[in-house]
Amino acid sequence: MRLPIRDLFITLGVFAAAAGLVRLLLVAPVTGPAPPRQAGEPPAVTPADSAGIAEALNEAMANVVERTLPGVVSVHVDRQRVIEETIVTGVGPQVRKRTVREPGVGSGVIVSKEGLVLTNWHVVEGDDVLIRVTLHGDEEPRRAALVDRDESVDIALLRIEPRQPDEPFPWLAFGDSDLMRPGHFVFALGNPRNLADTVTQGIISNRARRVSDTLDTYLQTDCAINPGNSGGPLVNLKGELIGINARLVIGPAESPSGQGYGLAIPGNEVQDAYERMIHKGRPRGYLGVTVEDWPVASYQTGRRSESALVVGLDKGSPAAAAGLRKDDLIQSMDGEPVRSSAEFFRRLRQKQVGETLAMGIRRDGADQELKVAVVDLKTIFESEETPVSREIAGLTVRELRRAERMRLALPDKGGVFVVQVAETSPLHGKISPGEVILRAREEVMDLDQRVQPIEAFGRGMESLKSRGGYLDVLRKGAVEAVTVPAS
Predict the structure, then answer these.
(1) Could you report the per-residue pLDDT of 216-229, keeping only the tens digit for each?
(2) Is 230 designated active site?
């Protein structure tokens, strides 16, 4: 790619400045006498010290990768899907069914010496799916069986088929994801674009992109994540599993400014789902409340978090029924202090379905106590009403179910699920059944990034008839822009 002359000089200038800074820090001799050190002031770091620190960090990071890679697997899936096609014959249009093969790739992490593997449910979901995994250092993949799944957390549990009785497997231990802070180093490991044993390094950019006991919460990282990373581990500098890489959000393909960032399911939520899957009969507790640290963004303001702030309530949830309100401050649970959203979730995970939780709150300057019942999250899904569906521009679409919305971290009444695509639709071949459309838009650079409910999506598609536009489609963990031609 050729750069314009002006951009070329800017680029050379940046590199020169960077090289000069490195030389200043690590190479250039110190001239002149050092200023006197005040009492209590730490000693100055010399260039030799800087080089030693950098080398130590370099070796420490390489050791983490070397220790954790054996516990990472590549996941290969082979789906068989039946599609319907309308063909025109001498006796008129007829519908025929055809079976198509859909291969896919993802990543996983071994979490027990018996060969239990955690990955994303969206990596292996389907009714008739052949699952194989390739271990670190292996040439040939081996079969893996689906043990269980938790769609609300987007987690699936697999078991590797051993090649000999009692075959031991390398595995990764869980860390405490509640302790992660913005700026902490992390590694994303996996099989992006079918490139096994790929490692990328970055930091935690945000520790709670959206926090709710219905798992609308993600660790955000700037590690390079690509399709195929889904299901792979996010590890800290101790080599502990603190997240499962789940989603990549990117800008429109037509926008050169679109930058990607990764979202990972927090390790504590993953561990909770894992323990519920291996201990059958342990349902997941649900309150239906969304909380944040108070003061909000305390880690940015420098103030220590003092309680958990209620920022949202699910309609008809146990928390709403108990009288909890938006902007309440949760200060204690069962007499134990709650000083942050992390403590709120830790206390909630200790409760069993059917138990009653005593919650101490502060509202309008006055202290109160509420009794909240912990219910089984599964019953919330089973009692759900049939989602609304519509025919729009040759697409049969419906509203997302609550379990789907939670798994994708989408707001209430936002996004549409594609059920069927007619051959006569201008989107035939561009959109597939099972994908989720977030919004319809006319401009390449649209500042309004809100996810559209089904009614707004219908109006948006109507406005695209004359000029055309774009659809933002959630596909394999990433948002892609699909062009809509003018009709």
Answers:
(1) 578 899 998 888 99
(2) yes
